[in-house]
Structure formats: structure tokens, C-alpha cells
Amino acid sequence: MIEDDLKHRIEGLKRISIVQSTLELLRAQLPKQLFYHGPSHTEDVLQEAVRFALIDKLPDRQIELLAIAAVCHDEGFVQSPVMNEPIGAARARERMTKAGGYSEEEIALVERMILDTALVDTGNGPRQIPSTDLSRYLLDADLSNFGRDDFFDKGELQRKELGVDQEIFRKNSFALLNNHRWLTKAAMTLRQKKKEHNIALLKSMVEGKKDSHALSFDRLGFLAKLPTLLNSSLDTQRVVKIALGELKARLNAKAATIFLLDEDGLTLSFWALQGAENQRLEGKKIPVNVGIVGWVIQNQEAIIIPDAASDPRFFSQIDKEGGFITRSMMCAPLSVREHSKLGAVQVLNKEDGEFTSDDLRFVIQFSHQVALAIENAQLYEAVTLRSQQLEMVDSRKSELMSLLAAEFRDPVTMIGDSAELLGSGALNDGLMVQRTCSMLSTGVRRLSKLIADFRNLSLATSLTLPVHKELCLVSSIIRNAMGGFQTVLMQRGISIVVECPEAVGAVEGDLNLLSIALSNLIANAIRFTPDNGNFVVKASRVDGFVSIEVIDHGVGMTTQAATKIFDGIQELPPITEIAASSFDFNSRGLGLGLPAVRTILRSHETSLEVRTRPDTGSTFSFSLPAA
User: How large is the greatest C-alpha to C-alpha distance in the chain, in angstroms?
Assistant: First the structure.
């Protein structure tokens, strides 16, 4: 009875315009190299989701929303195999909005279901975590083959799609399958018994392969000596480059590269290269969500790609810039502990055949040791830098406090004298009253600036910063940040151009701290924008992130000078050159605003980017995930 109803429901759902058009798009545009995540997988998920929903007797409207989420959940693969869930969610919103007849609550529910299909690292391994009751049906449908006869056939398609070694894939599949729990009563009833059978079969395969492969004596000897090499110098980059050259030689590869994640977690740097004819790539940055390397870091999977050009994840732009042709590659993540993602190691173009699973195991063992050396070096560098910072702060503390005390004296005196004059009743001349009020206002403004400097001092030297996250409209952050600058802007004839379309929406963060960070960037732009000039505060939304920029057309700076702007109190100029409460053009403050911004953004797991040129201006920007 259920199967007859299921067939009828599926036929009816496929006549809904969104479902029909999305399936047609997937058949036409999904890359042919997606052996697993092809149109047949989408139709399979649709059928299973509706089957579970019918068994558990969900309302018709919920089944319709579930069907839309099922057909849209892999649409992101048309554009990117790395960020497919957010892209698929965005496409679903576009389609439902255009079709009409769906409430904002229903559209958000479909978005949430699609985002929930992403695997999340947990203490017990990767899992899909539902955020809504309806998500449970989509997630069970997405992994329904765990409890079906076609589990191993589907698994082989996925392994082929990913390019992962069979033994490694089976071990990872066993961990995922063993950790999986059905979320709906229907899936538990229909699929649990077969899932237990599949677990038993997979376990026997994994254990049967145990210790069946061993590395060669030469490679084992190299790995045994590797820790000594990596610990032979404090110049970690130099010794890692040497080790990378040895790895490349033993694999008879054309080139090898180590990528490191930057502090913001959003970009990758070419940190060490061996063998590439063009070394211009060293130090180059690319977004973490592009390319096979980005996929490896996100999924923490080591892979072999026999034909890079035909893989939809391949980022060909780097070959064009480096003058290199990537034919085949291996890539393994650099990580020390779970959730500790440092980067990846990549080996390109084996010159005497194809990369093998033994080669990949060798690279994985190499990556474990290199990751440990890099993390130890990063920890040592961070501790050393922090110690130097604290020593510098302590040595200049009395000097700084003397400066602030002296700076407080003038505005306090101005406020006191003005208040006394106004309260005496002796001011009968309207012009004198106006001048006294102006003096009072100036004193308050300078006092407010000094209080902000004390706040920045606290933020810039803070080791930990409590963050109270909430949904914050980007327009509210900008509005809060601009408060208090009206007088100085009017006095100097500076105008601010604000570009913040309504579609930018919101981010998740601490509204007060983010407003302080942006306020400091605006204050910095005011200092270095000439009188009667202007600068731009711009917000935009791209690929699931909101970027906020402050773009000035002022004095700019050299690249060398830009590296020191976050040093704050360590680079404090002579006391006679500082006007802490001044916003005059090119005036020098305490230098604590930008270090405070960096601290706030770090607490939000992002960073401040600077683009600048002398006599041209500067752009300060940061990005946060869109809510």
C-alpha cells in the first residue's frame, strides 16, 4: 500500500515547477565526474525522503517542503564541490521566492534542511546534525543506502568520485557507518537490520586488510629519520622544505607543495614548494574553499587524483599563473588532533607511472610528522611573541599612563571652566554663551576619545575576550560605529559614503564589539583623509560571507609600514608627537585602535585584511559568515 502511494506521490511532486526544473537542471549541468552525486542520487534521496515521510504520516505541506529540499540539496555541485550545501540552500531560496506561495518560515526551513546535510566533525567522528524535525527525514534519506543492498555499489561510486584509496575509504566508511544513528522511526524500522549486516561485512573487509601493506625499507628509514631533521633547527620552514624535497624524490614526482591555513581560516598560503620551475607561487594566497586542496582540508581526507584536469574540484588558475601543468596529484591534510586543521601537503605528476595507494600511505605518514613540527613551531612563535609583547607593554606602562593623565587634564579643565561659567549666570552675551557651550562640547568630545583609548588599551592587551554572540544586522553595526563622529566630520568637511544594501542581511557576532572594531577603522580613516575629502564604508555579501570594508583615499602607506600597524604600544612614538584626543589630518594617536580591532576579530574567528599604497589610500576589510 505504501509503495503504491509512494509512486503516486513522487509523480505528483515531480510536477511541481521547482522540483521539475531542478531535476532537469541537474541532469543537464551536473559534472559527469560526479559518479555518486549525480541526478540518480538526487532522485534516490527524493524517493526515500517521501517514503519515510509517508510511513510516519507527515502532513502534505511538509512532504512538499521535504521534496524541494531533497532535489535542491546537491544543486551546489553544479557550481562547487567544496561549498555545495550553502550554495544549494541559496538556490532553493531563490527558486521558492521566485515561484511564490511559500512563507519566509517555509523557505528558511528548506534552507536549514539543506545546510544540515553537511557532515560535522564531532568527538565521535563525522555526523550529520539536524536542526529541525523535518531535517531528520532528509538526512536519513541522504544516507539511506547505509541500510540497503546497494551500500557497497554506492560506496564504490563515491570512492571513485573522491579519488580516495580503497583501504582508507573503507576504514573511513566503517567509522562513519558505525557512528551513524537513524533519526526517524521509519528509517529505523526499514533500514536498521540491513545496516547492521553491512557493518559486519565492512568490518571483515577492514580487518582482513590490516597490515597487508608495508612501506619499503627506504621509505620507512626516511620516516624514522624525519623527526630528527624537523627538530634540527628553529627555522622550521627551511627544514620542512628539505624534507619536502626528499619526499618528492622518493615519489619521483615533478613537484611538491605544503599549504598552510592563515589565521583567519579563510585563506591558504603556498608555504613551501619543491620542484616547480616557477617559484613565484611561494607566499601566494588562495581561498580555502577552492580546489582539491580546499576539499582535502575541509573533509580531512587524503586522496589520489589520476587526472586532475577532469576533476570538478580542480582549480586551474594556479597552473595558469605558475606556468605548470598538473596531470596527476596526491593530497593529504596536515592535522595534529581532531579539529586541528593546519593545511595540506600536495604532490604532483609522478614521472614513472601513476601514484599508488602505497605512495598515498607514505604521504600520509609524512604529513603527520610535518604537521606536528609546524604546530610546535607555531606554538613556540606565539609564546615568544606574546612574551615580548607583555614585556614591552610593561616597560611602557608608566609612560603611557602619564600621557593619558596629561591628556585628561585639558578636557576636564575645559568642561569644569565651561560649567562654572554657565552656572554663574554672568554670561549675558549670547556670543559668549555660544563660545562657552562650544568649549564644553569640545571638552566632552575629547574626553570621550580618551575613554575610547582606555577601552582600546584593554582590548589590545587582552589575552581572552568574552563574546556574546547574537544575530546582528550589518546596517546596525555600521550605524553604531558611525555615532560620535558627526562633529569632527563637519569641522573637517569629510563625508562618509555608506554602501550597505538590504540584501547584505545579518551576521552572528557581538554587536557591541563589532561596532567598536568598525568604529576604530572609521576613526583611522578620518585621521588619514585630507580635509574636505571622503571615504567609503561598504558591506557586501558573497558566497555565504559578509565583507565589511573601510576604503579611504588618503595618505596610504608602504607594505613595510603596513606590517607594523598592529604592534600598538610596542611602536608607540615619542610622547611629544602624540595627540591622543586629536582627529586632525595625519595626526598620531596611541596606535591602539587597530590592535584592538585585531583582538575583536580574532575572537570572532576572522582577521583584518589591509590593502594599501603610498599616496593612494588604504582599504581595511574583514569577513564574517552571513547569518
Answer: 100
